[in-house]
Amino acid sequence: MPQLTLQEPSLRYAAMAVGALRKASNVEFEASSPGNELAGDNKHYLNAIVYYCEALQLQAKARPTKEGLRTAMLASLLFICFEAQRGNMPAALKHITHGFSMLNELAACTDKAPGLVRIAPAPPALVQEILDCYKPLELQSRSFMGSYRKFFFPPKPPAVATNQAPPSQTASPRSVSSPPSQPGTPWANAHSSQQNPVGLPSPQSQASPQAMSDQQTPPRPPPQRPPGIAPFTKHSPYFRPKQTNISVIEDMPAVFSTLDEAHGYWTLLQRQLVQYIPLLTATTAQLALTKVKDMKELEIKLDSVRQNPRISKFLEESRHWLQRWSTSFSPLLQRAQDNRQNDEQSYLQAINFHIEFLILYIYTAMPRYSGVETAKDLTPQYRELNAIAETLIASRPNCGFAMDSGWTWPLFVSAFGCRDPEVKQDAIRILGKYPIRNALRDSRVFRAIALKNLEVEAMNATEGDEDQQWLRLRRRELVFEDLGMNIIFRYAEKSQATGEWELIEEVAAFMVGEDGQLNWHRQPISESVSILSGVC
């Protein structure tokens, strides 16, 4: 990137914008509260905006050449970094969508793929670096799929009430969309192969759906999926081992010889399992838990998931490969622990692989679709996850922002799902001690959600035995709405009028207060689908 910024003005201005924005803030800057410190006469922030707009304008004017495509892919990462750093989720997600559209062309071997492959003197190395940057963004953006669909494919309003907003939404995605200086959504051109045979247009050169509707263009059928985010398959580009000799998971050795070898087979294992994400998402949606009438129906629906043959296959396959990988990795992990004083970096790398294993182990236990004993049996994994996460977070400097996956999500899963109160509190403590935004995930926001969940669990514990309490907790759902600007939390609460435990829905803006809490208020039950799937 430093070399290319000398050659490409758009990259240079984009990098300067990111640097100026960092200069304008500090370690304590609340990324979840945009404008908290970046307002008024902050000259660094004003410079950042000027540089950013200049980079967008240069990229919009760029010609679709092979070198231009390389620049567009790298500029997309810098634009994502800029918007995510200042907490502008809608704009960051639009840039991510544009980047995905380019990478998916590369992976799908379409007519644009040859141009993508020849974007650098050493294309495999550059493409791998870019994929490494996009991998956490790909996984994190899955939390916003419902918002994507609503934004790009809004339901058609009745002809007589075209100006009325749907009552179930607290805010329209358009009401929080980026200002004109920021990129439009690339849905219109993401799947078109007739234009720009070598590359794809820049983010700003593409019109938003609303702008396109004003132009005199012939109608086209809508794309069949949200743009730029292709469904996970075994061929997804985000899970390819760096070592070319590692290509088949069945060749996994009994004991890994190096951390690179362990990483290669871990990547294959991830690729094997992530293809089931659409199945898990669809299963969660098909349960339609918001329409459940009583606790008996709730129990039947939740218990039916494990009887699904495809889910059973997923559980059997995932546990088999997780166990094989863990067995092969254990001697390597032990050696890294024994040699920690002499080689701290290898130890940190090894426990980072182990925390990824732990979170997948918890996922595949599917506690939400299991009894309370299954959830309680995961306590050792949650406790170990907390300890490793704190070690990893404390081992590196914290400037308040990073473009990697980080450990916010594993800690939130521990704070939300563990049945041991001490382990839950420990996860919340760690989230509070090390505030950071990892791309789209802000530890302050997830800590605030975990605090809200503590209140819900305390209320839930006032009635019924352990099994009844767990059944009610399995009804909890979490949704990121309006391109991440609003958070929905559903849970069961006892009605004072009927004496029954009824589902309620609360919503809060993506804005943490000075007390570390979110400002929740109740609203009617919406149709939005939870991001938790089998994790409870």
UniProtKB/TrEMBL annotation:
Biased composition (Pro residues): 218-229
Organism superkingdom: Eukaryota
Biased composition (Polar residues): 161-171
InterPro entries: Transcr_Regulatory_Proteins (IPR052360)
Keywords linked to the UniProt accession: DNA-binding, Metal-binding, Nucleus, Transcription, Transcription regulation, Zinc
Region feature (Disordered): 159-239
Start-end of Low complexity biased regions: 201-217
GO MF term list: DNA binding; metal ion binding
PANTHER family named among the record's database cross-references: ASPERCRYPTIN BIOSYNTHESIS CLUSTER-SPECIFIC TRANSCRIPTION REGULATOR ATNN-RELATED
Protein name: Zn(2)-C6 fungal-type domain-containing protein
Organism listed in the record: Gibberella intermedia (Bulb rot disease fungus)
